[in-house]
Recover the amino acids of this structure.
Protein backbone atom coordinates (compact mmCIF):
# COMPACT_ATOMS: atom_id res chain seq x y z
CA UNK A 1 0.00 0.00 0.00
CA UNK A 2 1.36 3.38 -1.00
CA UNK A 3 -0.36 6.31 0.74
CA UNK A 4 -0.27 9.34 -1.55
CA UNK A 5 -0.81 12.31 0.75
CA UNK A 6 -1.55 15.86 -0.41
CA UNK A 7 0.39 18.32 1.73
CA UNK A 8 -0.39 21.44 -0.28
CA UNK A 9 -0.86 24.76 1.53
CA UNK A 10 -4.68 24.41 1.58
CA UNK A 11 -4.30 21.47 3.97
CA UNK A 12 -3.56 24.02 6.71
CA UNK A 13 -7.19 25.18 6.67
CA UNK A 14 -9.77 23.83 9.14
CA UNK A 15 -7.13 21.70 10.90
CA UNK A 16 -7.11 19.30 7.93
CA UNK A 17 -3.41 18.60 8.23
CA UNK A 18 -3.56 18.07 11.98
CA UNK A 19 -6.36 15.53 11.57
CA UNK A 20 -4.57 13.77 8.70
CA UNK A 21 -1.31 13.58 10.63
CA UNK A 22 -2.93 12.13 13.74
CA UNK A 23 -4.97 9.57 11.76
CA UNK A 24 -1.94 8.43 9.75
CA UNK A 25 0.25 8.13 12.84
CA UNK A 26 -2.44 6.12 14.63
CA UNK A 27 -2.78 3.77 11.66
CA UNK A 28 0.99 3.22 11.43
CA UNK A 29 1.18 2.48 15.15
CA UNK A 30 -1.74 0.04 14.89
CA UNK A 31 -0.19 -1.89 12.02
CA UNK A 32 3.10 -2.08 13.88
CA UNK A 33 1.39 -3.22 17.10
CA UNK A 34 -0.25 -6.04 15.14
CA UNK A 35 3.27 -7.22 14.21
CA UNK A 36 1.82 -7.60 10.73
CA UNK A 37 4.58 -8.96 8.50
CA UNK A 38 2.31 -9.26 5.46
CA UNK A 39 1.26 -5.62 5.06
CA UNK A 40 3.81 -3.39 3.36
CA UNK A 41 3.25 0.35 3.70
CA UNK A 42 4.86 3.28 1.95
CA UNK A 43 4.09 6.99 1.95
CA UNK A 44 4.45 9.70 -0.64
CA UNK A 45 3.88 13.34 0.30
CA UNK A 46 3.36 15.66 -2.62
CA UNK A 47 4.10 18.19 -4.08
CA UNK A 48 7.40 18.16 -2.18
CA UNK A 49 7.80 14.53 -3.35
CA UNK A 50 9.02 12.95 -0.13
CA UNK A 51 8.57 9.26 -0.89
CA UNK A 52 9.16 5.99 0.89
CA UNK A 53 8.41 2.71 -0.94
CA UNK A 54 6.40 0.00 0.85
CA UNK A 55 8.10 -2.02 3.57
CA UNK A 56 6.87 -3.78 6.69
CA UNK A 57 6.22 -1.42 9.60
CA UNK A 58 7.61 -4.13 11.86
CA UNK A 59 10.94 -2.90 10.49
CA UNK A 60 11.83 -0.31 13.16
CA UNK A 61 13.86 1.87 10.79
CA UNK A 62 11.06 2.02 8.21
CA UNK A 63 8.48 2.75 10.89
CA UNK A 64 10.61 5.65 12.15
CA UNK A 65 10.97 6.96 8.59
CA UNK A 66 7.23 7.02 7.83
CA UNK A 67 6.49 8.63 11.20
CA UNK A 68 9.15 11.27 10.56
CA UNK A 69 7.74 11.99 7.09
CA UNK A 70 4.22 12.63 8.40
CA UNK A 71 4.89 14.09 11.84
CA UNK A 72 5.43 17.70 10.78
CA UNK A 73 3.57 20.68 12.14
CA UNK A 74 2.37 22.16 8.88
CA UNK A 75 2.21 21.23 5.18
CA UNK A 76 4.76 23.02 3.02
CA UNK A 77 3.56 22.37 -0.53
CA UNK A 78 2.01 24.88 -2.91
CA UNK A 79 -0.05 23.49 -5.81
CA UNK A 80 -1.62 20.02 -6.33
CA UNK A 81 0.10 18.07 -9.15
CA UNK A 82 -1.89 14.91 -8.47
CA UNK A 83 -1.45 13.26 -11.89
CA UNK A 84 2.35 13.41 -11.72
CA UNK A 85 2.32 12.14 -8.13
CA UNK A 86 -0.08 9.30 -9.02
CA UNK A 87 2.13 8.21 -11.90
CA UNK A 88 5.13 8.07 -9.59
CA UNK A 89 3.20 6.21 -6.87
CA UNK A 90 2.02 3.62 -9.39
CA UNK A 91 5.61 2.99 -10.48
CA UNK A 92 6.66 2.49 -6.87
CA UNK A 93 3.89 -0.06 -6.28
CA UNK A 94 4.58 -1.83 -9.59
CA UNK A 95 8.26 -2.24 -8.73
CA UNK A 96 7.59 -3.60 -5.22
CA UNK A 97 8.58 -7.21 -4.62
CA UNK A 98 7.79 -8.91 -1.29
CA UNK A 99 10.58 -10.81 0.46
CA UNK A 100 10.37 -14.34 -0.96
CA UNK A 101 12.37 -15.78 1.93
CA UNK A 102 9.37 -15.02 4.18
CA UNK A 103 7.03 -17.14 2.05
CA UNK A 104 5.34 -14.34 0.09
CA UNK A 105 4.32 -14.74 -3.54
CA UNK A 106 5.03 -11.74 -5.76
CA UNK A 107 2.48 -12.71 -8.40
CA UNK A 108 -0.32 -12.74 -5.80
CA UNK A 109 0.52 -9.48 -4.08
CA UNK A 110 -2.38 -7.05 -3.74
CA UNK A 111 -1.18 -3.64 -4.92
CA UNK A 112 -2.96 -0.52 -3.69
CA UNK A 113 -2.53 3.25 -3.94
CA UNK A 114 -4.52 5.42 -1.51
CA UNK A 115 -4.90 9.04 -2.62
CA UNK A 116 -5.74 11.50 0.15
CA UNK A 117 -6.32 15.05 -1.09
CA UNK A 118 -8.27 18.26 -0.55
CA UNK A 119 -7.53 19.72 -3.96
CA UNK A 120 -8.52 19.63 -7.60
CA UNK A 121 -5.52 18.38 -9.63
CA UNK A 122 -3.59 21.23 -11.18
CA UNK A 123 -2.21 18.91 -13.88
CA UNK A 124 -5.43 17.41 -15.20
CA UNK A 125 -8.20 15.41 -13.50
CA UNK A 126 -8.83 13.49 -16.73
CA UNK A 127 -5.22 12.34 -16.75
CA UNK A 128 -5.59 11.09 -13.17
CA UNK A 129 -8.71 9.11 -14.06
CA UNK A 130 -7.04 7.62 -17.14
CA UNK A 131 -4.00 6.55 -15.11
CA UNK A 132 -6.20 4.89 -12.47
CA UNK A 133 -8.14 2.97 -15.12
CA UNK A 134 -4.96 1.86 -16.91
CA UNK A 135 -3.41 0.51 -13.70
CA UNK A 136 -6.58 -1.21 -12.55
CA UNK A 137 -6.97 -2.91 -15.93
CA UNK A 138 -3.33 -3.98 -16.17
CA UNK A 139 -2.72 -7.44 -17.58
CA UNK A 140 0.18 -9.84 -16.88
CA UNK A 141 3.06 -9.52 -16.44
CA UNK A 142 1.90 -6.34 -14.66
CA UNK A 143 -0.39 -6.72 -11.64
CA UNK A 144 -3.62 -4.72 -11.31
CA UNK A 145 -3.36 -1.75 -8.95
CA UNK A 146 -6.48 -0.55 -7.15
CA UNK A 147 -6.83 3.14 -6.29
CA UNK A 148 -8.75 4.28 -3.22
CA UNK A 149 -9.70 7.96 -3.00
CA UNK A 150 -10.20 9.92 0.22
CA UNK A 151 -11.37 13.47 -0.35
CA UNK A 152 -11.39 16.09 2.38
CA UNK A 153 -13.30 19.25 1.55
CA UNK A 154 -16.71 20.95 1.43
CA UNK A 155 -19.62 18.70 0.51
CA UNK A 156 -21.83 18.36 -1.46
CA UNK A 157 -21.14 21.59 -3.30
CA UNK A 158 -17.36 21.25 -3.41
CA UNK A 159 -15.51 24.49 -3.99
CA UNK A 160 -13.05 26.36 -6.15
CA UNK A 161 -10.23 24.03 -5.12
CA UNK A 162 -12.06 20.79 -4.24
CA UNK A 163 -14.09 18.53 -6.51
CA UNK A 164 -15.82 15.56 -4.82
CA UNK A 165 -17.11 14.32 -8.19
CA UNK A 166 -13.51 13.94 -9.39
CA UNK A 167 -12.62 11.91 -6.30
CA UNK A 168 -15.57 9.58 -6.93
CA UNK A 169 -14.67 9.15 -10.60
CA UNK A 170 -11.11 8.29 -9.57
CA UNK A 171 -12.38 5.57 -7.22
CA UNK A 172 -14.60 4.21 -10.00
CA UNK A 173 -11.73 4.05 -12.48
CA UNK A 174 -9.44 2.61 -9.82
CA UNK A 175 -11.75 -0.32 -9.05
CA UNK A 176 -12.69 0.62 -5.48
CA UNK A 177 -16.09 2.28 -5.84
CA UNK A 178 -18.93 0.96 -3.70
CA UNK A 179 -21.60 -0.96 -5.60
CA UNK A 180 -24.44 1.32 -6.65
CA UNK A 181 -22.61 4.55 -5.76
CA UNK A 182 -23.22 7.86 -7.53
CA UNK A 183 -20.39 10.41 -8.03
CA UNK A 184 -22.95 13.23 -7.92
CA UNK A 185 -24.83 12.03 -4.83
CA UNK A 186 -25.50 14.59 -2.10
CA UNK A 187 -25.35 11.97 0.66
CA UNK A 188 -21.72 11.25 1.65
CA UNK A 189 -22.62 7.58 2.16
CA UNK A 190 -23.73 7.28 -1.47
CA UNK A 191 -20.69 8.71 -3.27
CA UNK A 192 -17.97 6.45 -4.69
CA UNK A 193 -15.02 7.77 -2.66
CA UNK A 194 -14.44 8.35 1.06
CA UNK A 195 -15.82 11.81 1.74
CA UNK A 196 -14.43 13.66 4.77
CA UNK A 197 -16.04 17.04 5.43
CA UNK A 198 -13.80 19.05 7.76
CA UNK A 199 -15.12 21.35 10.45
CA UNK A 200 -14.16 23.04 13.68
CA UNK A 201 -14.08 19.71 15.56
CA UNK A 202 -10.63 18.34 14.68
CA UNK A 203 -11.26 15.18 16.70
CA UNK A 204 -14.33 14.34 14.60
CA UNK A 205 -12.31 14.84 11.40
CA UNK A 206 -9.52 12.63 12.76
CA UNK A 207 -11.99 9.90 13.71
CA UNK A 208 -13.60 10.00 10.26
CA UNK A 209 -10.20 9.66 8.60
CA UNK A 210 -9.20 6.82 10.92
CA UNK A 211 -12.40 4.96 10.02
CA UNK A 212 -11.66 5.41 6.31
CA UNK A 213 -8.07 4.17 6.70
CA UNK A 214 -9.28 1.16 8.70
CA UNK A 215 -11.86 0.21 6.08
CA UNK A 216 -9.32 0.51 3.27
CA UNK A 217 -6.87 -1.68 5.18
CA UNK A 218 -9.58 -4.27 5.69
CA UNK A 219 -10.67 -4.22 2.05
CA UNK A 220 -7.04 -4.70 1.00
CA UNK A 221 -6.56 -7.83 3.12
CA UNK A 222 -6.19 -11.22 1.51
CA UNK A 223 -8.56 -14.18 1.81
CA UNK A 224 -5.98 -16.69 0.56
CA UNK A 225 -3.26 -18.33 2.67
CA UNK A 226 -0.46 -20.44 1.22
CA UNK A 227 1.04 -23.43 2.96
CA UNK A 228 3.59 -26.13 2.22
CA UNK A 229 3.27 -29.78 3.14
CA UNK A 230 5.71 -32.44 4.26
CA UNK A 231 5.31 -36.22 4.84
CA UNK A 232 3.76 -35.59 8.27
CA UNK A 233 1.20 -32.93 7.25
CA UNK A 234 -2.35 -33.91 8.19
CA UNK A 235 -4.78 -32.01 5.99
CA UNK A 236 -7.69 -33.69 7.76
CA UNK A 237 -6.80 -31.63 10.82
CA UNK A 238 -7.12 -27.94 9.91
CA UNK A 239 -8.38 -25.11 12.13
CA UNK A 240 -9.03 -21.57 10.85
CA UNK A 241 -9.95 -18.70 13.17
CA UNK A 242 -10.28 -14.92 12.95
CA UNK A 243 -9.33 -12.80 15.97
CA UNK A 244 -10.58 -9.20 16.05
CA UNK A 245 -8.94 -6.18 17.68
CA UNK A 246 -10.69 -6.91 21.00
CA UNK A 247 -9.40 -10.48 21.14
CA UNK A 248 -12.70 -12.14 20.20
CA UNK A 249 -12.04 -15.39 18.32
CA UNK A 250 -14.40 -16.56 15.56
CA UNK A 251 -13.91 -20.11 14.22
CA UNK A 252 -14.30 -20.48 10.45
CA UNK A 253 -15.98 -23.74 9.36
CA UNK A 254 -14.93 -25.78 6.37
CA UNK A 255 -17.51 -24.79 3.76
CA UNK A 256 -17.19 -24.13 0.03
CA UNK A 257 -19.69 -21.26 0.14
CA UNK A 258 -19.25 -19.35 3.41
CA UNK A 259 -16.23 -20.92 5.09
CA UNK A 260 -12.79 -22.13 4.14
CA UNK A 261 -11.79 -24.66 1.53
CA UNK A 262 -8.69 -25.84 -0.28
CA UNK A 263 -7.85 -24.28 -3.64
CA UNK A 264 -7.29 -27.69 -5.27
CA UNK A 265 -8.75 -30.58 -3.22
CA UNK A 266 -6.50 -33.18 -4.89
CA UNK A 267 -3.29 -31.20 -4.51
CA UNK A 268 -3.91 -28.19 -2.24
CA UNK A 269 -1.46 -25.36 -1.64
CA UNK A 270 -3.79 -22.67 -0.29
CA UNK A 271 -6.55 -22.19 2.26
CA UNK A 272 -9.20 -19.93 0.70
CA UNK A 273 -11.83 -18.08 2.74
CA UNK A 274 -15.09 -17.73 0.84
CA UNK A 275 -18.31 -15.74 1.07
CA UNK A 276 -19.15 -14.37 4.51
CA UNK A 277 -15.93 -15.76 5.97
CA UNK A 278 -13.87 -13.62 3.61
CA UNK A 279 -16.04 -10.62 4.57
CA UNK A 280 -15.38 -11.28 8.26
CA UNK A 281 -11.65 -11.34 7.58
CA UNK A 282 -11.62 -8.15 5.53
CA UNK A 283 -13.74 -6.46 8.19
CA UNK A 284 -11.06 -6.88 10.86
CA UNK A 285 -8.29 -4.36 10.03
CA UNK A 286 -6.63 -4.76 13.42
CA UNK A 287 -7.23 -8.49 13.73
CA UNK A 288 -5.57 -11.58 12.36
CA UNK A 289 -6.28 -14.93 10.75
CA UNK A 290 -4.73 -18.08 12.22
CA UNK A 291 -4.46 -21.24 10.14
CA UNK A 292 -3.30 -24.32 12.09
CA UNK A 293 -2.55 -27.54 10.19
CA UNK A 294 -2.05 -30.74 12.15
CA UNK A 295 0.76 -33.29 11.92
CA UNK A 296 0.62 -37.07 11.76
CA UNK A 297 3.01 -38.89 14.07
CA UNK A 298 5.83 -40.75 12.31
CA UNK A 299 5.34 -44.50 11.89
Amino acid sequence: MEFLVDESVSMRDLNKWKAAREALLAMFADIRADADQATFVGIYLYPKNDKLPPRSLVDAAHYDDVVRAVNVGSPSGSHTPTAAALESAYRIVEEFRPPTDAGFFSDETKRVVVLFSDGRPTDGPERCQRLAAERYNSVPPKDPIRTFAIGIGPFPQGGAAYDPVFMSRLAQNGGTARAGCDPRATDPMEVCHYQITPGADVEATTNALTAAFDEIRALSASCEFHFKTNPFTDLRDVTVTVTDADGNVTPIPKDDTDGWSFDEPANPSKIVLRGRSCSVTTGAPSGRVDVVIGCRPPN
About this structure: Residues 16-33 form the longest helix (18 residues).
